[in-house]
Design brief:
Length: 453
């Protein structure tokens, strides 16, 4: 190679020397109102290729930044090897946010370096577009008619699959609908709230007590549904169906912390409304209770958004306790783990719906796996009412969720050209400000990570 050619090449970003790629930096930006608190992530390299990732909603940027010293200097194309190094630093639910977000950014870099879309690296398409279901919470929908109208607006926008919240939170102001140890409901209804970032010690002490109350596992709350409460829930579903009809799938979520028998009682009352699935009726690790629940009601049973790593889905799948699994790409461990989860469920003839309540980064990462998975039912979308959600990125055709579907282009990686810093800057989290600031303080943290001696 002559000198002129070598010099010229040094000034060209060819994105074509994957074996010489090195991770050089990691940066973050926290936004609010998407509608969640979301943490967007960039991993930069020595060849000008940037990978985009995201930490699970309502987690914390440090979950990713604590990994930075383990990543600098690594070749980002060696995804599986790096993941095996960092996966011990993730855990279920939000605790997996850092590991998962980094893994997605590595896939984005590797796919860009080789010039292919991520779904192609996963084996290629099973479908041309990903069906998206639109989640709908209970705010402003105190009765089934109003929930039906909100869901009808989703249908009018082109969605072909729906989900609504249907839980004991709806019964707070319905006298005689709930039975519980006297005084418990009054305390519980004060709510958990969010951590005070600068509260006094006593305010924080009260906060921890409220969170603990809201975190009592389902069998230990002692909350039961009365006949009146069951009648009310049944009527809610009847009113919803009277508006949207019976020919569109409708899943339900956020039942509240009621025990197994209450979930069975409720399920039997509403199964006539062809519920697409009943989600997280009890904690996901209650394998035997899931098996009993699935055997007791004629509704597909679903869980999984808080499960880390694909092999933790195996007990549920082996038990027959789920008909639909519901992993979140930012909790399961990222792209490889989501694909492994899909394929594992496929072996048990169980469908996959993908939980997703974050930015276009997570939405597109999920869609790449969804489009490449045989057993995908639908992917969640939580941001239909957020007008600036699409503007967070450039690259994909807009709207990203178009008439209830995501279509992926042939662009390399996730298909994102750039993040839109102007839009991000308008929605920064007030308690975690700053956009793509230096994270050099994390460069030299060292821990002896080996888990054996
Ligand atoms: Mg859920």
């Amino acid at each position: 190679m002559n000198t002129d050619y070598t010099e010229a090449l040094a000034h060209v970003s060819t994105a074509s020397r994957p074996s010489e790629l090195r991770i050089t930096d990691m940066k973050v930006a926290d936004i609010v109102g998407a509608p969640m608190h979301c943490i967007m992530l960039k991993i930069e390299t020595n060849q000008g290729i940037t990978g985009y990732g995201e930490v699970r909603d309502a987690a914390y940027r440090d979950y990713a930044l604590m990994l930075k010293s383990r990543l600098l200097g690594e070749n980002p194309c060696e995804i599986d090897r790096i993941f095996r190094k960092i996966k011990q630093l993730g855990t279920h639910a939000r605790g997996a946010g850092g590991v998962s977000g980094v893994e997605i950014a590595l896939w984005d870099i590797a796919a860009k370096a080789y010039g292919v879309p991520i779904y192609q690296m996963l084996g290629g398409k099973h479908r041309d577009k990903v069906r998206v279901y639109c989640d709908t919470d209970i705010d402003g929908k105190p009765d089934g008619k109003r929930m039906g109208e909100a869901l009808q607006a989703r249908l009018d926008a082109g969605f072909t699959f729906l989900k609504m919240d249907l839980g004991i939170g709806l019964l707070r102001d319905v006298p005689g609908a709930l039975c519980a140890p006297l005084g418990f409901l009054e305390e519980w209804q004060k709510g958990g709230g969010w951590a005070g970032y600068d509260g006094t010690i006593e305010e924080r002490h009260e906060f921890h007590k409220r969170v603990q109350l809201q975190s009592i596992e389902h069998p230990y709350t002692g909350i039961q549904l009365t006949e009146k409460g069951l009648d009310w829930m049944e009527q809610y579903c009847a009113d919803v169906r009277s508006v949207i009809g019976c020919d569109v799938p409708l899943a339900i979520d956020h039942l509240g912390h009621i025990g197994l028998t209450e979930a069975i009682k409720l399920g039997r009352r509403i199964e006539k409304y062809n519920i697409a699935w009943m989600e997280d009726a009890v904690p996901w690790m209650y394998t035997d209770q899931y098996k009993l629940l699935q055997q007791s009601v004629a509704i597909p049973i679903c869980t999984g958004e808080d499960i880390y790593l694909h092999d933790n889905f195996k007990p549920l799948l082996e038990s027959g306790g789920v008909s639909v699994i519901h992993p979140d790409i930012l909790t399961v461990g990222g792209i490889s783990e989501l694909k492994k989860t899909a394929d594992l469920a496929d072996e048990y003839h169980v469908a996959m719906a993908i939980h997703m309540a974050e930015t276009p980064i997570a939405a597109l990462a999920s869609a790449h796996v969804g489009i490449a998975s045989a057993n995908l039912l639908a992917q969640e979308f939580h941001s239909f009412d957020v007008p600036w959600w699409n503007d967070l990125v450039t690259g994909p055709a807009k709207p990203i969720v178009d008439h209830g579907f995501i279509t992926l282009s042939d662009a390399p990686g996730l298909g994102i050209d750039e993040l839109n810093d102007e839009v991000i800057a308008e929605h920064l989290h007030p308690a975690v400000p700053g956009i793509w600031e230096s994270t050099d303080e994390w460069n030299t943290r060292y821990v002896h990570d080996r888990i054996w001696s």
